[in-house]
Each structure stands twice: as C-alpha cells, then as structure tokens.
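JOB MANIFEST
job_type = single_chain_structure
chain_count = 1
residues = 112
[input]
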Amino acid sequence: MAYIRTVYREIDREQRIFTFQATQLIWLFFGILEALLAWRVALKLVGANPNSPFGAMVYDLTSLFLVPFTGLTFTPVIDGMVFEISSIIAMFVYALIAWVVARVVWLIFYRP
C-alpha cells in the first residue's frame, strides 16, 4: 500500500512565533511591574514596616518606576497608613504603555 505524504511549510512561521514570544515577554515584564506596584500600594495601605526585608525590596524595586509620578497628587496619611494615589496612577500609565508597546511590536513584526 502506497502512502502519499505532503509537506506544507508555513510561510513566515518563525516571524509569527517571534512576534508572539516578544509580545508575551513584554506582557510578562509589565505584569511583574504591575504586581510589584500593587504590592507597594498594599504594603503602604496596611502601614507595613519599610525596614523589613520584603518591604524594603518592594519599595526599592518600585521607587525607580515611580519617579515620574512623585508629587503628582495628594497622598493621604492616617496613623502610618499611606494611600499612594500616584502609585495607582502609575499602574494605569504602565498598563497603557505595555499595551502600546505590545501593539507596536505586533504591527511591525507580524506577517499574516
């Protein structure tokens, strides 16, 4: 019995895989940043000790990303609990930046 075997090579398959992986890497980076910013907001809200190792790590990792938003809005403080409105604004801005960067990579590299 004879079998007929056909080989179909998908054109630009590697390009599409690269585009998919690049956009997933962008979402991973910004997702980690968003999670760290959310942890910062939560730690500030509960009045966590900034000298504890976990708190210090979160504050140190996120401080660089919050520089553009420092002093943007009023920051209410009640008994050591801080509600950083600027951190929440930063989360929205970085989510928008992530979406724009992922779309630009998709538009430049994706070949249907």
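[summary]
The chain has one domain: 31-109.
The first strand starts at residue 77 and ends at 78.
exit_status = 0
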